[in-house]
Amino acid sequence: METTRFFDMKLRFLVRVSLRIVVSLMVSMAEGRGNAAPVSDPIGTWLTEDGRARIRIERCGAALDRVCGYVVWMNETADAKGQPFRDRLNPDPAKRGRLLLGHQMLLGLKLNADGRYTGDVYNAEDGKTYNVSIWLERPRILAVKGCLLGLFCATQGWAQVTDLVPGQLLAATGDGGGPVPDLDWAPTRPAQPAAKASASAKIKTGGN
Fold first, then answer.
1. pTM of the model
2. Residue 208: strand, helix, or coil
3. Mean pLDDT, to the nearest integer, of 145-160?
4. Helix (H, G, I), strand (E, B), or coil: what is residue 92?
């Protein structure tokens, strides 16, 4: 009788321990799901915190795992003499004549394990490139964190906009009337069919 009672008590103890282990595992799994990095999709048009520009963020051409950003509107596009602002401080001499309206500023950001897109941002105000990370801080607000040498950082909040304003570039990236991508992130163009290319050559040369 005493032996049976001992085994009953031991069995109950093992059951209680097992239940505690199962409950602990379930809680840990639930907490893990709750702490999983959120995936933020920054695709859209955003008004910078100072209200001076609108940035259109989209997939980078054929690099669908990356996002690029273009200036599609500026509240001031020309200087006091009526001359359009150009990228005169760019370290690449070939880009110093390009217009600031339509230039690419976010350079192929890639999603990381924290659910943020990270990469480089070009700042035309000083001609320098900085580290940047972007993520949805809350609905319709994009957090943009820029860092110098990975040490000195500042974060802005960009508000999503869906309306259109005068002077905003509406055409597709790379098309006339749209923003101009850097060569590294230019959309790929389908190859021209041989027959069509031949016909175009005849028209240009006057061939029969």
1. 0.73
2. coil
3. 88
4. coil
